[in-house]
Amino acid sequence: MKKFLVLLILCLGMAGIFAGCSGKNGDSNDNNETTPTPEATNDEDTDDTEGVFVPVENPVVKEDYDINDYIKLGKYKGIEVEVKKREVTDEDIDIAIQMDLYDYGAAPVEVTDRAVKLGDTVVMDFVGYHNGETFTGGSAEDYEITVGSRVFVDGFEDQLVGAELNKEFEVNVTFPKNYSNTDLAGEPVVFKVIIKNIMYFELTEEFVKDTLGFESEEAYRESLRSQLEEEYAELAASQKESDVYYAVINGSEITLPENLLEYYASEFKTLYTNLAGSYGMDLETLVSLYGTTMEEFELGSRTYAENMATRELIVKAICAAEGLELTEEEFQQYASEYAEQFGYESNEEFLSNTDAEALKEDILFNKIIDFLVAEAIEK
User: Fold this and answer.
1) Which residue among 75, 80, 291, 343 is least enclosed by CB atoms within 10 Å?
2) What is the C-alpha to C-alpha distance for residues 106 and 207, in angstroms, rounded to an integer?
3) How far lies 128's CA from each of 84, 170, 258, in Å?
4) Domain 2-18+41-83+230-378: which topology?
């Protein structure tokens, strides 16, 4: 559950604005996760919560408001969701092996006499178009990816298979309906792509034993299978949470309070201003170091504000409708988990370095997601 929480925050922009299209070793023209890239938005797994609850002195004061003036809940119990349970295939394991070989610095075998195959690592340039126009965050040069790793939006990597070196071709995909940038959510886009390099890695007995510490290739493959089965189960659970949450949003009538938008936009900017200051630079310099313009940064702050304000309204409305609240016992339990995760000696030490109110809001959000998922119906 916490993974969905953190994933949602990162995708909305709190720590993901600079994630963008850097790829493995690529250089992005527009690094901004809150704006469209071909990278997936729901299947990225992360435990990097550090920084999410850092105390921020927000110059904008959050004003009181009547929740009934801004949201009319639609259906939120008994939502039907389709849970896709992916099975681990031998092909998945082969791709995982290629990714391990890459990560451990194995020597690549250059390919010059054939087209791209599943499992190859490729270096590519791409430019994305929506309704014939380029869009922010949709272009990158020298982007390196293992084909089949599923780090891009569904359908992108499949269309790389069969591509030839140095020949431009088109990849057609549709962004997810719950994509954080509403201008492109559910929209078809076209990427013009050029494959500049193709390579693969050879698995050797020496690598299996000396580098990975397995007795045999068979034992290594079985270990990968177990890891992937666990990963796929977690991804399916996270996708279910995401689908249920966005179904509630889409089925509700929501008007975002202007003060709430100002509050969260200011929070976003203040966080990054403080981060820049900790490195002895101003915000503009920090933003430019990540290949991002201030215009794109402002877009990121607006997207973050809209999504966080929506989240607050949804949580408050469901709490009011169901009589739900966060107990002190629940708060301390979650705080204990975070304290252990980040290496603090005690809850007290963790909470003294944490924005407790932000933490409480996020824990309550977790509780609401648990409630919605428990009430959902799998097709």
Assistant:
1) 343
2) 9
3) 28, 10, 33
4) Trigger factor, domain 2 (1.10.3120)
Encoded tokens for 290: 């990540």
What digits encode the pLDDT tens for the residues 210-259? 999 999 999 999 999 999 999 999 999 999 999 999 999 999 999 999 99
Q: Which residues contact 101 (CB under 8 A, 6 or more apart)?
A: 201, 202, 203, 207
The domain ranges of the chain are 2-18+41-83+230-378
Query: Could you tell me if 13 and 33 are in contact, meaning their C-beta atoms sit under 8 angstroms apart?
Result: yes
